[in-house]
Amino acid sequence: MQRVLVFALAAASLLVCASAALSASIDEATRTVKTPVFDVQWSATNPEEILSLSWNGSPNLTNRSDLFCNGDSEFFGNSWDTDNDSANFAAPVGCGTTGTWTARGSKRIDIQSSAQGSFGTSGIPVRTQYQFVDSGPGVNTFTVRRTFDFGATAFMHDIRPYVPRLFPRDRYTAVLHPNAGGTALVTEDANPCDFGCRINDWNGSWFAVHDPASGAGMIVVHHSSRFGTALWIDMEGASQTTASSVALLQPPGGFVGNVTDVQTFCLYDASLWTPSLTLPPGCGNAAADQADGSGG
Fold first, then answer.
1. pLDDT per residue over 135-186, tens digit each?
2. pTM for the predicted model, two decimal places
3. Is the torsion defined by CA of 166, 168, 169, 175 positive or negative?
4. CA of 72: how far to CAs of 15, 87, 115, 272, in Å?
5. Is the peptide bond before 168 cis (omega within 30 degrees of 0)?
6. Which of 194, 69, 78 is nearest to 119 (CA)?
7. Does 2-290 carry CATH code 2.70.98?
């Protein structure tokens, strides 16, 4: 009986340890998040800048560049308008961004920031919330809710509210998306889009940045918006990243007041998804359900 009890206690301890090892954790001092599949590191100086993103033990899947300004302007999580090939370039989240990075429980981050040194901006307040998942079908996802406080001064640009970047660009050369009617899967070649390509034949629901050789990539699910949308395909030379993203189309008179955008990012490989109009289980739902701030 004693042996059975000892074995039961040992088994219970192993289960507790295994559960702890698989749970999500946030280290506010080092600005890192660890989940069963993600290992993410933010900059110590720019609270919005993701320096490293690893999924399922992969090498760093992103990269950055300080082209044209003091501080990194290209990084996973920046926000630009769609005029990055002109003198009117505006970047609400980019180089010179400062602010706070705060853990809210073990799976959520709250960032308050403004960019004083970015192109064409004057310290627009930005709030970015991340929600991670540590179990279930949504474990390969995280959701980002970003709010811009434009106030009464109109932002007279189409805006890319959140720009994800996959490295290297010569691997992630395809962008997959539903057509405008949601009836067919379209494959775009991203290689010609060094200065951005606007795609209007899109239903606004999701797109995937895809590596045709390995079958791996990242699905971006765009949650409903009160603004018109387009798909912006982009290849960056300085950071050598694929930087395709959602573009919100400015309404008449520009963006004013608070503008909120929510996106879920779903990492996959060939074992999890064969490209089709049907997304992998859990992609776009689990983290989004908690992205309003109710998650722990």
1. 999 999 999 999 999 999 999 999 999 999 999 999 999 999 999 999 999 9
2. 0.89
3. negative
4. 43, 19, 12, 33
5. yes
6. 69
7. yes
